[in-house]
Amino acid sequence: MSGPQLPHRAQDQAVVGAAVVEPSVQRWTIFEWSLQASLDGSARDTTVRATFRHGADAISVDGFPDGDGAWRVRFMPHETGEWRFHISSSIAELDGSTGSFVCVEPGPSNHGPVQVDGGFHFAYVDGTRYLPFGTTCYAWNHQPARRRQETLSTLRTSPFNKLRMCVFPKRYIYNADEPELHAFARKADGSLDFDRFEPEFFRQLEARVGELKDLGIEADLILFHPYDTWGYQDMTAEQDERYLRYLIARLGAYRNVWWSIANEFDLMAKPPERWLRFLEILAEADPYRHLTSIHNAERMFDHDHPGITHVSIQSWDVKRTREWRERFGKPIINDEPEYEGDVPLPWGNISARELVHRYWVTLLDGGHAGHGETYLDDHDILWWSKGGRLKGESPPRIAFLRRLMEEASGPLEPLEPSWVWTRVSAGAVAPGTWFFYFGEHQPGRWTYGLPTEDGDYAVDLIDPWEMTVTPIPVSPPPPPTGLPGSHEEDPPAFSVDLPARPYLAIRVRKL
Predict the structure, then answer these.
(1) What is the Cα–Cα distance from 8 to 20, expressed in whole angstroms?
(2) Residue 44: its pLDDT value, please?
(3) pLDDT for 116-169, tens place per residue?
(4) Under CATH, what is the fold of the domain 413-510?
(5) What is the per-residue pLDDT for 402?
(6) What is the pLDDT of residue 18?
(7) Distance (Å, rounded) from C-alpha 511 to C-alpha 509?
(8) C-alpha angle 448/451/457, rounded to 5°?
(9) Longest C-alpha distance within the chain, in Å?
(10) pLDDT at 234 over 80
(11) CA–CA separation, 373 vs 390, rounded Å?
């Protein structure tokens, strides 16, 4: 496997008042300007800030110290052509530095950052559809190199295009190893000094984000979490803010970054105003407006906040997807509808069939679902935390579902509810295409919610577990029954006979 695409670096070429035209960088990739100073950035009041200009656009980003007197500025250009920049700094030898570079068209696999599209959906900034099919590997980036490579090899052939991962190390059941690196330097007594960053930790982190980018995977970075014994969750408000601004400066120019402010924020002792302050900092320091969420355990955050771009949920009750969608008016990602596995804890021992079932319900009810795997292992190598290899049966079925959804003519919208069919299936429609998933129900004939216009239709029976798509014939609509909800005022154009087995679906396409 080739290594991550490194940002372009203009090493030590900043000269006050001198403009330097650098080799070109692609749109939505990273331009990096490196400078050397006698100050290493440990002073809290040291600042380096760059303003990039292109036509009427003027975008400012913070620089960051990278150890041994090195300072870096990273920028992700969104327009082609020449960009010029100017450095403002409290360090006299850096203040006033200038330069320029040329931005060219992106390569075929570079679609830019993902953004919200159409209220409940996502698309890359160039308009290409993006359907999030995520998985969770909380601490894969803190594992030895051999296991990290195994994780990347697994992801390369998996259906997953988003990965939830923690910035800070994690200490929890099945994950008790001491990490090789910490985000902060050590004090003389061995404890962490939360006022001094450890640059090598962040170099390793950005290398992992770059590796995911090369695989076309979005890095959903969890900025805070409650599972540690080192004191990360107990940092002061000032330390939290300094860390957050440093992380944005280092990683904000990566197009595949998403910000997940916390995993299970309601299990942490931070006061409510601290979370709101984090959203303010992201609005101030991230000019790219990366997708931003916050994840819950039991108590949901106020997802109405304008800084929250999409709703990240932990809930087994996937049949509430419509409720959340209507409540918040934003994309719904149930990142943890419980995990396929066999650990004693209930959130980590549902069957693969059940996880696949929850995926189908979530997607056809207008949301997006996340995967996780927690099978017991003699060496505690569980995918959900440490990565490695997948053992479960759900990933190929999730890949099958992803192909079906991507083959649809556009984003799916849940069908309008009626008292009959909402109790026996989830249903969604794209232009000219309908999906019905019957879940635990097993009708022998189906009419409710089918198209009402006459015409030619192709109907396929889908078995989500066997991963088969089988054409089935259509029949005339049934005679009137006089029963409530039988659609006699707006009768379907046809009906279909079904094998009366649970966990099946049909796809209807107008020809």
Answers:
(1) 14
(2) 76
(3) 998 999 999 999 999 999 999 999 999 999 999 999 999 999 999 999 999 999
(4) Immunoglobulin-like (2.60.40)
(5) 98
(6) 37
(7) 6
(8) 120
(9) 86
(10) yes
(11) 7
Q: Note the residue count of the chain.
A: 511
Phi first, then psi, for residue 322 (nearest 5°) are: -60, -40
* Contact between residue 164 and residue 222 where contact means Cβ atoms under 8 Å apart: yes
With 0-12 CB in 10 A as exposed, 13-18 as middle and 19+ as buried, what is 4? middle
First to last CA, the chain: 43
- Please give the Cα distance from 124 to 113 (Å, whole number): 6
* Of the candidates 144, 154, 130, the residue with the CA atom closest to the CA atom of residue 220: 130
Tokens standing for residue 417: 């509810």
DSSP state of 401: H
The proportion of the chain whose per-residue pLDDT surpasses 90, expressed as a percent, equals: 82
Cβ atoms within 10 Å of 65's Cβ, excluding its own: 21
Computed on alpha carbons and rounded to an integer, the radius of gyration of the chain in Å comes to 25
In Å, what is the CA distance from 496 to each residue of 45, 140, 413, 463, 507? 71, 47, 22, 16, 11
pLDDT tens-digit profile of 31-77? 999 988 877 666 677 899 999 999 999 999 999 999 988 999 999 99
**Which tokens belong to 511?**
């020809």
User: What dotted CATH number matches 134-407?
Assistant: 3.20.20.80
Query: Which of 43, 99, 46, 36 is CA-nearest to residue 71?
Result: 36
* 65, 25 Cβ separation under 8 angstroms: no
467 closest CA partner among 353, 337, 362: 353
Tokens describing residue 376? 């017991």
**413-510 shares the fold of 8-104:** yes
Fold of 8-104: Immunoglobulin-like (2.60.40)
Both tokens of residue 489? 């005022």
Q: What is the DSSP letter of 119?
A: T
pLDDT digits (tens, 9 = 90+) for 382-404: 999 999 999 999 999 999 999 99
Q: Where are the domains of the chain?
A: 8-104, 134-407, 413-510
DSSP secondary-structure letter at 412?
A: -
Check: CB of residue 392 under 8 Å from CB of residue 376.
no
Q: Which amino acid, residue 445?
A: R
Contacts of 471 (CB under 8 A, 6+ apart): 458, 459, 460, 461
Distance of CA 290 to the CA centre of its chain: 10
CA atoms of 502 and 155, how far apart (whole Å): 31
What pLDDT, in 10s, does the model give residues 275-315?
999 999 999 999 999 999 999 999 999 999 999 999 999 99
Instruction: At 445, list the tokens.
Output: 């004939």
